[in-house]
Amino acid sequence: MDHFLYRGGILHAEDVALTEIAAAVGTPFYIYSSATLARHFRLFTEALTPLPHLVCFAIKSLSNVAVLKTLGDLGAGMDVVSIGEYLRARAAGVPGDRIVFSGVGKTRAEIRAALEGGVRQFNVESEPEMRAISEVAVSLGTTAPIAIRVNPDVDAQTHAKIATGKSENKFGIPISRAVPAYAEAARLPGLRVVGIDVHIGSQLTELSPFEMAFRKVADLTETLRAQGHRIERLDLGGGLGIPYARSNEAPPLPTDYGAMIKRTLGHLDCEIEIEPGRLISGNSGLLVAQVIYVKNGEGRDFLILDAAMNDLIRPAMYEAHHDILPVIETAPGEPTRPFDVVGPVCETGDTFARGRELPLLAEGDLVAFRSAGAYGAVMASEYNSRPLVPEVLVHGDQFAVIRERPTFDEMIARDKLPRWL
Question: Is the pTM of this model over 0.85?
Fold first, then answer.
């Protein structure tokens, strides 16, 4: 469920008409619903109760500080994969003891900054990284809490570019090497082992890969405890999918996910950490664009929008589907026809949909891309020298621009001419 509904024939974000925002901000723009963000976060907290738990929002899916503060004020932790994301979480008021630092390539400078600012734990991805964390912690005279990310060699049955739990992926330490890795961690100075971490991929639409991985983690927990390691937390990552194509997708609900966690890991008396991103932010956001032209081609018609692949790259990068809705509601029975929905970027790949059945839209009409809150604005670029689009947050009948659209002068001023020019 989200809070984007037609009212009086106009698509609204909560209690604000998208036409009103478009008039004030211009198109294209991203719009997020505070109520949807809060609802989706609470679904996870309710699903894990009564287990001790912390729901850490995966900042990589949507990193705007206003969104992070919205969730942080509800008690969310944060999962970060760079010092930039860490600093965004802190700027949103999230304390260090609710921030989990993940990522395969943490630098010593990032490790130092997180230790100095406070961190709940580092999710260690390799033995060399573990030694680096030890060195930095010793140099600061402190102790770094760590969980080792194990790679369980489980096929997440998702897109190859977002699968992270198979043996050929770059993530984690092979689970077959976990016992000696934990033994080394116990010997290294400046480290305190607090748990085990696992994350097998994103946009999973079945629970069976999760269950297979979590059962391996349960067995490893008992093995490590028998060897004297204190395993207090199990970080299970994120990855639960959302329905992008409303007509044919039905991913598991957070309640089903929570029940499976309780069934497979509840007997271990560990605190559970999960790191959902997409399921909290994905359906909390839309990308709103305007039709520039309707072009009749040879055997196909094109809707040319003012949004492009640099604004929403998922269709070009992942062959991803996003439902596209007219902002002004069409009456039942109105005719439709297939359109290729494209942007103005000079790439054939700048295509959002091919042969999509849509109403007979015209120049100047507004359309909204559903499920655009996750991996939309965060993956945007200025390709073709197109300014980043603004982000807007709605709260009831109020809206605010939470990231401005830069002017062309501001964008160009970042380039600096060398003295010889």
Answer: yes
